Amino acid sequence: MGVAWRAESRAVAQRLEAVARLYTIRKRQYVEAEFWHTDVYEAVAAEVSAAQNLSRWRAGSQVNTAVSLFERLPAVAAVFARGDIDYRMVRFALRRTANVDDGTIGELDAALARHITRWMRFSDKKLTDRLDMWVAKFDPAGVRVPPAAKDNRYLDVAPDSLGMAFVGGVMNADDAAALDQRLEALAATVCANDPRSHNQLRADAGGALGRGEVTLACQCGSEDCPAAAVRESAAQVVIHILAEQGTVDGTSDNPGYLSGFGVLPAEEVRAAAGKKTAKLKPVRTPAAEPEKGYRPSAPLKDYLRWRDLTCRFPGCDAPVESCDVDHTTPWPFGITHASGLKHYCRTHHLIKTFYSGPGGWRDEQRPDGTIVLTAPTGHVYTTEPHGGELFPALAVPTAPIPDADAPRDPSEKSEKMPRRARTRDEDRRARIERERQQRIELNAERKRQREAWLAATYEPPPF
Questions:
Q1: Residue limits of the DUF222 domain (predicted)?
Q2: Do both 129 and 32 map to the same domain?
Q3: Number of helices and strands (H, E) in the chain?
Q4: Which is nearest to 183 in space by CA: 210, 165, 149?
């Protein structure tokens, strides 16, 4: 176990060092990208995402960790590379030293490298305290300031188990109280014979609240139910479910797909399709002839949406609702057809467009929607449409792709890239400066309070 643990740490350190080296290379290569919206961090994250089949968020987090570790804590990185500490220790060290002044971080790094191996047994709380103690020795203003609780509020809605979703978060107390009362009020609109538990009624009330309904449909099954009022809706809410016709008809139990949440059991699909407000719309395979305009027609966009389901970049699972439709070969040289169109999220669309050309990203598309991407390193990655994998009828070749060579991108193409007001490093330094100033003020206030307490309790000698 010990040998395997050390080998794991060495392997992670080696991987992060490779990411940091790649960032150094790309930073020299893409000098003009510092103020680009999709900057060098995003460009390197795209390569990390493709190489490791990670989401954009996880790849970006890895880039930030690797660059910070090898630029700010190289001595700690060397201890990590020997397998003497693990990734947890590295993350804590980076987090607690993030605000340390650049002129001081080298000395602190050397001190941490000498002591950090003895802290592996510490709990998260004890480890935080020990790291903060060493930061305070070298740079008192660099000790992290806990964020205000109000700044950490959030509300997540995410896929959970099959056909279910998780909803949870931290809200302002008055908002949470209003939500709690609204759920209770909706849950109370059913009759006493409704078979659901109180928790189940509150959960179902959340759905009714999302649809803007003022009452919850009772499930007692009685024709004389006193709660059988007509439900009203204050908002027009639309959800999209993809399923085979046999699933809707009941002749098949193949699951469907709820956009943004994943696979949906067949019985859930039929329940949704059986509602009075449900609209059933067939997904039609595009005609063989490409369309003439730049923008795809509504039926073609509908087909592309269900064929792809997510961004087509390797590792990216951004839903199509937040993606752009991209011509694989730039229009008008490429075709406006399912064989020549696919979805990229905005970041990967910009990377494909602006980090392309000789030595950059290149992509090609097959008639069945398969995308073949070649990275700047020459590595080749293939992605199949997610909808086509779940529903094979959507992965059939739609039309042959005519040969077309688009001219090279003009040298002034970079002028069209969306720009940042400040670089990523400038944003980081501004955040650190704000937090350091908070720490200085907190330290000054603590010193003032201590001196006031000493003055109030001090008794001069009797002579």
A1: 5-308
A2: yes
A3: 15, 10
A4: 210
CA distance 41 to 55: 14
pLDDT digits 0-9 by tens, 45-77: 999 999 999 999 999 999 999 999 999 999 999
Q: Are residues 69 and 45 in the same domain?
A: yes
The reported pLDDT for the residue numbered 450 is: 86
Residues with Cβ within 8 Å of 169's Cβ and at least 6 positions away in sequence, in order, are 153, 154, 155, 156
The distance from CA 146 to its chain's CA centroid, rounded to whole angstroms, is: 24
Strand partners, 310: 319
State the CB neighbour count (10 A cutoff) for residue 257: 20
Contact status, residue 419 vs residue 36, Cβ threshold 8 Å: yes
Amino acid residing at 338: A
Nearest CA to 77 out of 124, 18, 134 is that of: 18
Total tally of structural domains belonging to the chain: 4
Beta bridge partners of 148: none
d(CA 401, CA 334): 9
In a shared domain, residues 132 and 187: no
**Cα 119 to Cα 102: distance, rounded to the nearest angstrom:** 24
- CA-based radius of gyration for the chain: 29
Half-sphere exposure of 108 (CA within 13 A, CB side): 27
The angle subtended at Cα 247 by Cα 241 and Cα 250, nearest 5°, is: 135
Q: How many CA atoms lie within 13 A of 406 on its CB side?
A: 18
Same domain? 50 vs 80 = yes
3-state secondary structure 350-415: HHHHHCECCCCEEEEECCCCCEEEECCCCCEEEECCHHHHHCHHHHCCCCCCCCCCCCCCCHHHHH
Q: Which helix (H) or strand (E) holds 324?
A: strand 323-327
Residues of the chain with pLDDT under 70: 229-237, 399, 401-415, 463
Q: Whose structure tokens read 């990411």?
A: 19
In a domain, 434, yes or no: no
Looking at the structure, do residues 7 and 80 belong to the same domain, yes or no?
Answer: yes
Q: Is the peptide bond before 314 cis (omega within 30 degrees of 0)?
A: no
Is residue 335 in some structural domain? yes
Quick one: which of 122, 67, 430 has its CA closest to 133? 122
User: How far apart are the C-alpha atoms of 419 and 426, rounded to whole Å?
Assistant: 14
For residue 404, CA distances in Å to 330, 332, 335, 357 come to 10, 10, 9, 16
- CA distances 434 to 93, 134, 139, 420, Å, are 20, 21, 15, 20
At residue 59, what is the residue type?
A
d(CA 326, CA 349): 7
Does 303 lie in the same domain as 399? yes
Is the pTM value of this prediction over 0.70? yes
Q: Which residues contact 432 (CB under 8 A, 6 or more apart)?
A: 98, 99
